[in-house]
Amino acid sequence: VSSRCSGLPLARCYSAAAKGGLSISGVSDIIAVASGKGGVGKSTTAVNIAVALAKEFKLKVGLLDADIYGPSIPTMMHLHEKPEVMSALEKMTRGVAWGNLDVLVVDMPPGTGDAQLSMSQRLRLSGALIVSTPQDIALIDARRGANMFRKVQVPILGLVENMSCFKCPKCGEKSYIFGEGGAQRTAEDMDMKFLGEIPLEIDIRTGSDEGKPIVISSPDSASAQAYLRVAEKVTQRLKELAEERLMGPEISL
C-alpha cells in the first residue's frame, strides 16, 4: 500500500473497525484536541497542528470548532460568521459535505463535563491530543481530560506541553514561567506519549490575533518547528493505532 505521511492510508482502510460513535463519510481519521481547562492554548495548538498536517505533510485536513460559541477558532482563522442553529454540532457532522479528508481536527470545548463526554461518544474518534501548560493546576485538569477519553475507549495520541518556556528575544535566556517538565512527568506517570514542548513566543499570540497561524506566518520560528514535530508524531501515532486495530482479534456475533 502506498503511504503518504507515515502510513495514514492504513487508518483509512481500518477506521471502520473503531468502536462506537459516528463516522463521517470520506473522513479517514477524526482527532480531538482537548484540555481539562481553558486558557492553556488548546485552540492555538489545534489550528497550528491542522495547518502543519496540511502544509508540511500534504494531507487533506479539516478543522471543526466544537466550542461553537467560543471566539478562538473564528478569530485565528479570520472568520466572522456566527452559528445560527441550536443543533450546530449535529449539522457540522452529519450535515456538512466534508469531502475526502485524511484528518479532521476537532477543537473540543474546554473541560470534562457533559458536553465533552457527549462529543467524545458522538464522534468515532481515532484519538485525542491533550494540551496543557507545565503548571501543576493545569496538569491536574489534563489528567482528568485524559481519563475521560479513556473511559469512553478513545485512544490518547499524547500530551503536548504548551507555553513550556519563554526565551528572551534580546539575551536568549530561558524562563520557565509555568514550571519545567511537568507535562513530560505527567505523561510518564499516566503511560501516555509525550509529543513535545511548544515555547511561549510573542509571534504565536500576534499571529493568532491576526488570523495568521505561526506555522504559516513564521515557518522557521522555534514555535512553528515545534508544531511541525508534534504533527509528525501525531501521524506516527495514528499509524500505530491503525496497525493495532489491524492486529486485534476479530469479534463476531
UniProtKB/TrEMBL annotation:
Gene3D superfamilies listed in its UniProt record: P-loop containing nucleotide triphosphate hydrolases
One Gene Ontology molecular-function label: ATP-dependent FeS chaperone activity
InterPro entries: Mrp-like_CS, Mrp/NBP35_ATP-bd, NUBPL-like, P-loop_NTPase, YlxH/NBP35
PROSITE patterns to which the protein is assigned, alphabetical: MRP
UniProt keyword annotations, A-Z: ATP-binding, Iron, Iron-sulfur, Metal-binding, Nucleotide-binding
Keyword Magnesium on entry: no
GO cellular component terms given for this protein: mitochondrion
Residues annotated as signal peptide: none
GO biological process: iron-sulfur cluster assembly; mitochondrial respiratory chain complex I assembly
Pfam family, one: ParA
Keyword Iron: yes
PANTHER family noted in UniProt: IRON-SULFUR PROTEIN NUBPL
HAMAP family with a match to the protein in the record: Mrp_NBP35
Similarity-based family: Belongs to the Mrp/NBP35 ATP-binding proteins family.
Protein name: CobQ/CobB/MinD/ParA nucleotide binding domain-containing protein
Organism name: Aegilops tauschii subsp. strangulata
Upper taxonomic lineage: Eukaryota, Viridiplantae, Streptophyta, Embryophyta, Tracheophyta
